[in-house]
Every structure is written in C-alpha cells, then in structure tokens.
Design brief:
This protein has about 120 residues and is of the alpha+beta class. It has two domains: about 45 residues; about 60 residues, no CATH class. About 40% of the residues lie in helices and about 45% in strands. The structure holds zinc ion (ZN) (2 copies). One zinc ion binds next to strand 2. Keywords: Signal.
Length: about 120
C-alpha cells in the first residue's frame, strides 16, 4: 500500500514535470514560429535570383573626336576622326522577386576614319 502511494506520487510528479515540459515546449514553439516567419522572409530574400534576359539593346554613343595626321604628296594634313562607342544594355527580369536589373557594357569602339 505504501509502495503504491509512492508510485502514485511519483506518477503525479512525472505528470507535473511533463505538463510543465509541454508548457515550456509550447512557449518555445511560439518563439519558434515567430522565428520561422522571420526565417521564411530571410530565406525568401536569400532565394537565389532567377534572372532571365528579357532584352538586349544597342546604342551608339559619341565618345570623342580626335585629330590624326596623314601625309599626302609630302604635305602633312590633319584630319578629324569621331570615336563612337557601341554600347550594349542587357535587361534581366527575376520572377522570384519581381525585379529587374540591367547591365551596360562597351561592345565596340568605332573610329569614323581609318587611320593608323
Ligand atoms: Zn530576384
Ligand atoms: Zn580615330
């Protein structure tokens, strides 16, 4: 009879402990779910981009005018040459985050005149 009581007591204690453990776990879960929401947003931001090229545009930009000399029948002449930059602008779109990015690069430098 005494042993039964002890067992019952220990069972009650075990119950109490497990109850408090459950409560503590629950409190942790609330914190955790808050973190999970934050984590999800962070994960979304961390999601690698899905860049897809949507367009490529070329543009001719006058860069400079320079002079060069040529010899014609033993006479030194000065000529002007226009330097044009052929610029390429690529546009990418990322459907994961609904944003775009563009990159402009120099494709070619063109001299209007042939000269050395
Ligand atoms: Zn993105
Ligand atoms: Zn030139």
């Amino acid at each position: 009879m005494k042993l039964k009581l002890v067992l019952l007591m220990s069972f009650a204690i075990a119950c109490a402990v497990s109850m408090s453990t459950v409560e503590a776990k629950h409190a942790d879960l609330d914190e955790e779910s808050k973190i999970t929401v934050y984590e999800k947003e962070r994960q979304l931001n961390k999601t690698p981009h899905n860049w897809k090229k949507t367009s490529s545009q070329f543009e001719m930009v006058h860069a400079d005018t320079h002079e060069y000399t040529v010899w014609h029948n033993f006479i030194k002449k000065t000529r002007k040459c226009d330097i044009t930059h052929r610029m390429k602008t690529d546009v990418w779109y990322c459907e994961f985050h609904n944003h775009t990015k563009s990159e402009t690069s120099l494709e070619e430098t063109i001299h209007s005149n042939r000269h050395s």
